[in-house]
TrEMBL record:
<comment type="similarity">
    <text>Belongs to the DapA family.</text>
</comment>
<keyword id="KW-0456">Lyase</keyword>
<protein>
    <submittedName>
        <fullName>Dihydrodipicolinate synthase family protein</fullName>
    </submittedName>
</protein>
<dbReference type="InterPro" id="IPR013785">
    <property type="entry name" value="Aldolase_TIM"/>
</dbReference>
<dbReference type="Pfam" id="PF00701">
    <property type="entry name" value="DHDPS"/>
</dbReference>
<dbReference type="InterPro" id="IPR002220">
    <property type="entry name" value="DapA-like"/>
</dbReference>
<dbReference type="GO" id="GO:0008840">
    <property type="term" value="F:4-hydroxy-tetrahydrodipicolinate synthase activity"/>
</dbReference>
<dbReference type="GO" id="GO:0005829">
    <property type="term" value="C:cytosol"/>
</dbReference>
<feature type="binding site">
    <location>
        <position position="212"/>
    </location>
    <ligand>
        <name>pyruvate</name>
    </ligand>
</feature>
Amino acid sequence: MKTPLTGILPVAPTPFNADGTLDVPGMRNVIDCLIDQGVDAICILANYSEQMVLSDEERALMTRVSLEHCAGRVPVIVTISHFSTDIVVKRAIEAQALGASMVMMMPPYHGVGMVPAPDTIFEHFAAASDAISIPIMIQDAPLSGVTLPVPLLVKMAQEIENVSYFKIETPFAADKLAALIAAGGDHIVGPFDGEEAVTLLADLDAGCTGTMTSGMFPEMIRPIVTEYLAGNHDAALAQWKLCMPLINHENRQCGLRACKTVYAAGGVIGSDYVRHPLKPMSQRTKDRLLQLAGDLDLIALRWGK
């Protein structure tokens, strides 16, 4: 990438057929639908892609399908998180070879009793960086249970060549983003937030330059970022207020199931199936989701009709 990524880099859902098998044509539709929504990049195989229920063979297939079908229309970020450093390095090499523009990694974790020491976390990211020449985004999320203090993040940005993007979705993310940007300076190329943009305005105030949400409605969330970065803060606030009911419902009630439900309702994919041990949403939650999505006339709700 010649210029830093900004804007919205949504996570693509991994579609399954109603019997739980991979929906490969649906994956291609997902990529097309996201591009039609004007995204700045697409992230695949993240937690909101249900990466934790995919086999290695399924990961490899969906990586290849997504990158080949996207065909350079927008940058693709491939999530390569794993506890094993050797596996992370292998995934990083494969992602770059297939055309990924960036990889995203969480710190190594496997339950609260197996959290590596800070120097081991540093080595984990350094090993991935040494194997590739594309940027690495560090995902700092409560899901891992691993604390990544600002001094460690800054050290990685300063000393690991390809570490330059950060997705901060911890509690009080705005304060952490502000501290990271202040301490890291030019080494912090891409400070991003996450969590479906529920804290996006505060995070933009803190200096973030983009967001990684789900893929449900990036066409409505992207203007919040672009207006803010253009100095139109009142317009950004107005757009955030417009989106906030749906953002909140997704973040607090639906989780990763929301995007799949909206995409299925709009004919992007054939089923909103999630693999066990995840469970479908209640009809009550789904009804409210589709009402809020319909009120905003989302592209995904009419994309396949």
